[in-house]
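Hey all, sorry for the wall of text incoming. These are the two entities for the joint prediction.
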Amino acid sequence: MSTPRELTYLEAVRECMSQEMRVNEDVFIMGEDIGLYGGAFGVTRGMLEEFGKERVRNTPISEAAIAGAAVGAAMTGMRPIVELQFSDFITIATDQIVNQAAKNRYMFGGKGKVPLVLRTPSGSGTGAAAQHSQSLEAWMAHIPGLKVIQPSTAYDAKGLLKAAIDDDNPVIFYEHKLLYRTKGHVPEESYSLPIGKADIKRAGTDVTIVATAIMVHKALQAAVELEKEGISVEIIDPRTLVPLDIETIVESVKKTGRVVVVHEAVKRGGFGGEIASLIAESEAFDYLDAPIKRLGGKSVPIPYNPVLEKAAIPQEQDIIQAVKDTVFRR
Amino acid sequence: MATAVFMPKLSMTMETGTVIQWFKQEGDLVREGDVLLEVLTDKINIEVESYSTGTLLKIYYGPDQVVPVNQVIGYVGEASEVVPDIAPSAEPHSSTEATEVQNEQKENHETRERESVGQKIRATPVARRIAKDNEIDLSLVNGTGPNGRVQKVDIEQAVAARSAKPISTQPETTTEPRSRKVKVEGMRKVIAERMAVSANTAPHVTLSTEADMSQVMEVRSTLLPTIEKMTGHRLSYTEIIMKAVATALSRHPKVNASLKDDVIELHETINVGLAVAVTDGLLVPVIKQADRKGLADLTTETKRVAGLARDGRLLPDDMRGGTFTISNLGMYAIDVFTPIINQPESAILGVGRIHEKPVGVNGQIVLRPMMSLSLSFDHRVMDGAPAAAFLQEIKELLESPYHLLA
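and here's what came out:
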């Protein structure tokens, strides 16, 4: 038996795009400096050599223009994959994404499809400060017509990106900067993971942690520590916020009776509130044995200072404490 | 808003009253303070005044009728109001509002009782669901969550307790303290049996003394970094005490013994058990050949077995073959206690906390970190003097711990 092949998250994303571009002429990538430079984080490095300038398109520094061009290309039958250097820059492309991409299929009565993938690095931890470190996925999740994906592992990234490319609707694909270098088992062949299916990253019985992106990994570490104190943690990674697999979460909460929702984005107005509300509205309510706990970033712009940057978002210790508060027994 | 007129309770012993006469008739206007009727108690006749102003709407009981105290005997309200045709049953806390009285009549007693206390109960949704499924009155369950919130675990215990013994139907009126029952089984049962056997068969004598731990503290802080580097664990007082005990046992072989029938078995191997508190009980993993181990090995071994004990993963072999036991309550504010011997061993050492006390040294009162040592021994196996000599040896070893390193 050979050991499973390991790739970084970044390589998994690149491999998926390359494989799709090899089999489908309509797929192409565009973005700032994605050609020779290989993109802000090196995700597209080497792709220019294989696919050429026509299919690996460097763009001017205008996110509005990039997104607008991508919407147009998608509606005329192409399957563009856009890379925005930092997810913060979605603000510049908001009209194209929110008012055009998200609405066009609906407003044209289904006559036009928008098979567009917008890949973009989000999250803090790189010392990139307040304008390059945000987690704004809840904004996009609020817009009807957009799908929102947040993979936490290399395996999930490859499979979900393939599903996003195959989807006829606009998909916002958030890649966490700190996950790019993380490694995991990734099959060589092309595969697709269903959009809207959560993954149980760890099975447990005492408390459910619903965690997204980098928080999945912090929660996994916290779970190891909590296990030592006899607290068995189940970790659910929704993987896709829209559509959201609430059933898997509800089933887990029915089993454990306690839930901590954790994400990096600012807690106030964050997607954790949506998850918590859905749980409270669901049949899991009658199984809850503690208030639903939310953990999220502090209500501050992400600081440049690395110590403060760390303090602004939930850490392993915060998760441990939140779980202990939730399993409170006097 | 009709106001009920009650049969008043006019003395501590009064249970019923007899209506003698009404001074007003149904339909009459009455003012607050007007005399409504005359009542005969077991002692006196008394005039009952109206507490409200309005129309006397209803009179339920006429002259010579005997009525329980607090029973509604009439209503005063506005002329158009509707009141029950028959008197509501006596209810000390029943509402005075006619409309509510009507509603209450439709409901059963149980519902009303729950409502009267229900608003103050804090319970999690799952606790409420299980309580409902099992017909458990939440107000009777002691909540252990924040602010007394009833949690799932509390209800489950209540369900378990009820299956052991039916919950009294009127618990609020009983004066018995509330309790729940936990079956003695598993580890608890073993501990219960063994302690009872030991206490009942071995005549226990407990000796106690105090050791000045100044030098042990020095030794510990000196060796701490070395041992941490060697073993990855922090050297604790437990290991030093264990080393002293093992050394003392090697010099006092009579203590390292077991009584079986008519034979005292003197053990040549020194295996020291360490009482470890675990959830719901106590385990005694054994450090084999403790006298032959250095502090580093003892540290490794103690941390290993204590960890396994807490995780519930001790193997039977880890607990077999003990010849002496140490029970350390030093982490609590305990000075002296009388440990019960872990049979078939012949003695057990109880260790208290280390804390600074004034002691006399060369005619001066100084503060020294003192630790109490309590040795319980089986008087069938040995007598006071050898036991005292053994305990003194431990004390001396702890007071001059460098001898342990020889």
